[in-house]
Amino acid sequence: MMIHVFLLLSLCFSYGFLPVASLGINYGQVGSNLPPPDKVLGLLSSLKITKAKIYDTNPQILTTFANSNVELIVTVENQMLAVVMDPQQALQWVITHIKPYFPATKITEISVGNEVFTDDDTSLIGYLVPAMVSIHGALVQLGLDKYIHVSTPNSLAILQESFPPSAGSFKSQVSATMSQYLQFLANTGSPFWINAYPYFAYKGAPNNVSLDYVLFNKNPGMVDPYTKLHYDNMLYAQVDAVVYAMFRLGYSGIEVRVSETGWPSKGDPDETGATPANAAVYNRNLLRRQMRNEGTPLITPNRNHLDLHFTCASLPPPQKKKPKGKAFHFIYHFQS
Hints:
InterPro entries: GH (IPR017853), Glyco_hydro_17 (IPR000490), Glyco_hydro_17_plant (IPR044965). The strands form four sheets. A six-stranded parallel sheet has the order 6-5-4-3-2-14. Strands 1-13-10-7 form a four-stranded parallel sheet, with helices on one face. It has a single domain (3-311), classed as TIM Barrel. Helix 4 crosses helix 5 and helix 5 runs parallel beside helix 6 (175-188). The chain is built from ten helices and 14 strands. By secondary structure, it is α/β, with parallel strands linked by helices.
């Protein structure tokens, strides 16, 4: 099993960026003074970024990214799940939003919804797997399933337990649909996506969680009392907790990818640790881990790989939940 990490990061590209072949971005389009798609593509090319994810199927972006070296993940928005669970509607969606652009535009994956299991609209959970099955069926019908995978990003809030990592388990209220989802992934060879933000665990208990532990700085770490595996950072512990949660439902060998992670560069006065300096440290240290091609303690390096995705927007992506009344700045503006 391999692990990929797609990052939503507070990154300033002027601080000494390290280009790596598997680097990518989450390309959010909500914000002000955003560069047009051609400028974004030029920036990605100059930084040797080869992967990107968008939160819709913006035709301007899909057209602009044609005949480039950038692989794209596109999204079926949450409000469309009830529609595309109908196989005919799913086929029409793929014909309209995918077929005109592929293969010139390297669409490699379709994200069906975003954080559906934890969305305020609980009815979406019932639509999720049927929608994924229908979208995948449409890809099969059009001969595209060998090239394009189907999955959905999940919030860490789907976990009932995450500490220690070996205690990882899914919440009972989502376990039935989660099993169906995992079976779909196993059948189609698609990855499990997780949005993991160590910052929020630190923010919730800053006196009990070491800042160095969540920032990948040197620290004593922690040892899982059951597996005796040593963890020197929270992100890897969170990833392994997801793997153990899948084990508990009887699934192994499903690839895990971190679809979002990051650290806020600014927040409200009570947002402990939300500073540009900490954001830079988090990003820089994680990039260095990427350069070393590290694995998590559970997933050995020769079976593990970190695919880094950054965000080029001044606000978090759409559908990204933050506590009411709180303002988080997860991204810096690009600097030329």
